[in-house]
Amino acid sequence: MNLVSMRVITKDVERLVSFYDTISGSAATRHTPDFAELEP
């Protein structure tokens, strides 16, 4: 099993989360207003 972790730093978390939600087809989990997690 291969595990990958990646962090992206941005000023506009909402916009970036929306982008990744759209291209991945999965909804991000928002732990805090400035942190989101995407899982396959």
Topology readout:
Elements: H1 13-24, E1 29-32, E2 35-37
Antiparallel strand pairs: 1-2
Rg, please? 10 Å
Query: Mind summarizing the main beta sheet?
Result: 2 strands, antiparallel
Distance, first to last CA: 14 Å
Q: Kindly state the mean pLDDT as a whole number?
A: 90
**Order of strands in the sheet with the most strands?**
1-2
Number of domains: 1
Secondary-structure-derived class: alpha+beta
Rough shape?
Answer: globular
Walk me through the structure.
By secondary structure, the chain is of the alpha+beta class. The chain has one domain (1-40). It contains one helix and two strands, in the order αββ. Strands 1-2 form a two-stranded antiparallel sheet. β1 and β2 form a beta hairpin. The protein is globular and about 30 Å long. The model has no long low-confidence stretch (mean pLDDT 90).
Could you list some keywords that capture this structure?
40 residues; two-stranded antiparallel sheet; 18% strand
Give a brief outline of the structure.
The chain has 40 residues and is α+β, with helices and mostly antiparallel strands. It is 30% helix and 18% strand.
